[in-house]
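Sequence in, structure out. Go.
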Amino acid sequence: MKRVLAIFMVYIAVFIVGMVCFSSVFMLYKVCTTLVAGEPLLPFSLSYFFDGMHFSFFLCALFAIMFLSLYLVRHPSSSKMPVGTVIVLGAATWFLFVPFLQKNYFGVSLAVSEKEPKNISAGYFRTQGDKIFYYASVAQDMASGVEFLIPASESKSLVIRTFADRRLEKTESEPFADPLIRDSLRLPMPVARLLQGYAVLEHQATLSINSGYITWLCFASMGVAFLSVIILIYGSVWRMINSFSIMFCSLFIFWMNGLYYGTSFLSGFKNLCRKIPLYFIPDRGIVFLNLGLAIVISMTGLLIVLRKRAKTTNEVLG
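Output:
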């Protein structure tokens, strides 16, 4: 009973700690997008923090099963009650908690609160494409200063010219207010891709919930795939291998669903699934994809477990 209670506490902690940490990072990043060079940083913004809470709830739901499985790896038990508890919590998360909370609270607004745009500061060099600008003065959306055109080859000379009343285009440094801050805080490509994939899934989750519970069940088939990774806690006597397998499979499920909704990579698979006469399933492609992933992961884990038990039995029998 203590282990079951501990699993409930870990489950709650995943959401509380995860949402607070992600919302804090989200808030700092969004505050930095409004920062201009030479201006003091005001790191706290309540509106951005709550936007981060909205944005991160589904992220915690996505990986809650993974963290609970990692907890079971760290604290193994001969009883099946902890595993059953994780399965019940995972099912309740995907089929009850997420559709209700995402529809009524965390998915109400898909847009992030925006602050009043700021003018960039004068007295700094800024790079825009193959040009370098020095803004001597900035007033409203107009700037004056010096422009340096970087030559494409060494045979050409540097071009320097002055300008006055040049209109500052906000799109030049989006989503940042200042190109200097953008260049300093540009996200690494893998992180940017992960966040882009998550944004696609979070948006699709809200659309699926608003389209009806049957459509949500199709999307929630991803939860079945995530639940299948629980069997990997029994895969090896080495906890690190089990932990790595759980994290790898969870990220792979996340990646495949992101490809399905965010790209045309699986368009052929989608068209093939549409021809299957199961018309009561709105999105047959995502259901077959996630059930296929769940079956492959479950069968692989089961075969590993059976092989390990057979090896243990042979060693005991001598």
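Check: The mean pLDDT is 83. The first helix runs from residue 2 to 33.
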